[in-house]
């Protein structure tokens, strides 16, 4: 889909469709006012008659309105202007995404967007995400990106930024939506090498031999029963001063989580191709940061392994030697994400990162705590946590902090090894997982984002198809930009 700028007034644009946006209980402005004037007040009359809804993300299609060159006009409601303030920033992305997804139901060559007063970069990113769906193996019925998408703006830089964000989010979504039969540690590494070469960052891949040399005993145990050997993908973008410590991004990359010997149910396993979303998010953020040429140093670490079952599976009661020297008693092989992360966090710190953010579809408990749309945030550093919260808020993504009181650590004590890999009970399971990771971050300022909810959706939303969401790419970019 080609993204272009247009200066054509809404009524005059020759296109298959145009999209306009209206606030609830506000006078029509911009393109909506133009369309209304060109069509002799039709739009205002339809709104008055409750035939066109200004409610947030409501879509109404107007067929061939008189005085309008485009074949159809799609009107998307924005809701009340001051309804939910903390939702405001994501509004452009979601509203434009809603129009784009609606129009992508069939092939169209030219579609014009008139996102008056909305953030242009978010609008472009929203459209790009909206037109791409999870039906990547479908012959019919999938979404159709347009030939050309035109945006009414003169801000070329914002359009380019939106394109970079949209493409990066779509890369994450594609990798996560690709099933484990086609996306495994080695193929993820190949993808990362390609993206690095295209976007401008270095990629190094550690194979099992190297992981063994590096004493990554927990990481290797998780991947051991798979026919697809584990990989650690290390990405490096040095846009800042050479003496400045890089920001470290670490991602859980479990390409399929069967649960191992603590096997999941079929239902619980169905979506577990999504368990590498943290790693994909790190790769997507590296791509965006490099393409935006941000003047910072960033290192990404994608911990890729497949948690499977075989005669050589790791077992309950096994004691794993982590790279840090700490020993871990296995109480549940389905608590595997923290094991691959433990060794990877240790590698990241030895690479000299100044601060560390990890992203992981780590616990079902986080879904219980915060629902499907909010990432759990856990930290050892209030300053870094505040930066991450502000970054998320600035781009309309949702994080919520969970408490990290010392007494949670009691729950991961083992009578055999230094620690065990799950808490005594299910209660506070997101936090005991966070406490486990904290054992490996040493004194580095660190934020853990449990993205088990927002990374992958069972159902579509008006602005995005179901499946992978690309959540937190924008937040990571905003965070790194704040460090500039
Ligand atoms: N990958 C899962 C967590 C998950 C669940 C992500 C649902 C997305 C949706 C993780 O590896 C896991 O299985 N966690 C266990 C931990 C438990 C055994 C301590 C869980 O949440 O049940
Ligand atoms: Mn698991
Ligand atoms: Zn998992």
Task: Name some characteristics of this structure.
484 residues, alpha/beta, Leucine Aminopeptidase, subunit E, domain 1, Aminopeptidase, eight-stranded mixed β-sheet, 34% helix, elongated, binds ligand BES, binds zinc ion
What is the number of beta strands?
19
- Overall average pLDDT: 97
Number of domains: 2
Estimated share of beta-strand residues? 15-25%
Low-confidence stretches: none
Any idea of the CATH class of the largest domain? Alpha Beta
Side by side, the strands of the main sheet go 7-8-10-9-13-17-14-15
Sheet having the most strands: 8 strands, mixed
> Which molecules are bound besides the chains?
ligand BES, manganese (II) ion, zinc ion
| Shape estimate | elongated
Overview of the molecule:
With 484 residues, this protein is of the alpha/beta class. The protein has 15 helices and 19 strands. It has helices spanning 30-38, 42-48, 91-103, 120-130, 156-177, 185-199, 208-213, 217-223, 266-269, 277-291, 337-350, 364-370, 382-394, 429-438, 473-482, and strands spanning 2-6, 17-24, 59-63, 72-80, 110-114, 148-152, 202-206, 231-238, 247-257, 297-307, 319-321, 327-329, 355-360, 375-379, 399-401, 419-420, 446-450, 456-457, 467-468. The radius of gyration is 24 Å and the shape is elongated. The protein binds ligand BES, manganese (II) ion and zinc ion. The site of zinc ion has 5 residues, from β9.
Quick summary of this structure?
The protein is of the alpha/beta class and 484 residues long.
């Amino acid at each position: 889909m080609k993204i272009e700028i247009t200066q054509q007034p809404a009524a005059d644009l020759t296109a298959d469709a145009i999209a306009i946006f209206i606030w609830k209980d506000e006078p029509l402005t911009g393109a909506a006012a133009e369309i209304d004037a060109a069509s002799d007040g039709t739009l205002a009359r339809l709104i008055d008659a409750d035939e066109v809804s200004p409610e947030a993300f409501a879509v109404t299609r107007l067929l061939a309105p008189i005085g309008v060159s485009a074949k159809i006009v799609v009107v998307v409601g924005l809701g009340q202007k001051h309804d939910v303030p903390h939702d405001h920033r994501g509004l452009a992305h979601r509203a434009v995404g809603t129009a784009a997804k609606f129009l992508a139901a069939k092939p169209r060559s030219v579609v014009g967007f008139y996102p008056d007063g909305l953030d242009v970069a978010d609008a472009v990113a929203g459209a790009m995400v909206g037109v791409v769906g999870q039906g990547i193996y479908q012959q019919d019925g999938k979404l159709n990106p347009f030939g050309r998408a035109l945006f009414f703006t003169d801000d070329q830089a914002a359009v380019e930024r939106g394109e970079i964000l949209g493409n990066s989010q779509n890369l994450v979504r594609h990798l996560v939506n690709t099933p484990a039969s086609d996306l495994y540690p080695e193929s993820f590494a190949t993808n990362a090498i390609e993206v690095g070469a295209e976007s401008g960052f270095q990629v190094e891949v550690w194979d099992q031999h190297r992981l063994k040399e590096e004493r990554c005993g927990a990481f290797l145990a998780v991947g051991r029963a798979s026919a697809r050997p584990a990989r650690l993908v290390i990405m490096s973008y040095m846009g800042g001063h050479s003496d400045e410590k890089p920001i470290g991004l670490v991602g859980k990359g479990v390409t399929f989580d069967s649960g191992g010997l603590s096997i999941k149910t079929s239902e619980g396993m169905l979506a577990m191709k999504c368990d590498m979303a943290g790693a994909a998010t790190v790769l997507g953020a590296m791509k965006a940061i490099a393409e935006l040429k941000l003047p910072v140093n960033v290192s990404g670490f994608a911990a890729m392994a497949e948690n499977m079952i075989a005669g050589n599976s790791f077992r309950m009661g096994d004691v794993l030697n982590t790279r840090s020297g700490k020993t871990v008693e296995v109480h549940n092989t389905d608590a595997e994400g923290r094991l691959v992360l433990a060794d990877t966090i240790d590698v990241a710190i030895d690479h000299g990162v100044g601060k560390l953010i990890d992203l992981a579809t780590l616990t079902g408990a986080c879904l219980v705590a915060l629902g499907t749309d909010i990432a759990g945030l856990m930290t050892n550093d209030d300053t870094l946590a505040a930066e991450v919260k502000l970054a998320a808020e600035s781009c309309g993504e949702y994080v919520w902090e969970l408490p990290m009181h010392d007494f949670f650590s009691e729950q991961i004590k083992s009578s055999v090894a230094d620690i065990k890999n799950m808490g005594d009970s299910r209660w506070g399971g997101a936090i005991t997982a966070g406490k486990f990771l904290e054992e490996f971050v040493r004194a580095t300022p660190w934020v853990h984002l449990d993205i088990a909810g927002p990374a992958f959706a069972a159902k579509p939303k008006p602005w995005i198809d179901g499946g992978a969401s690309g959540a937190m790419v924008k937040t990571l970019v905003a965070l790194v930009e704040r460090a500039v």
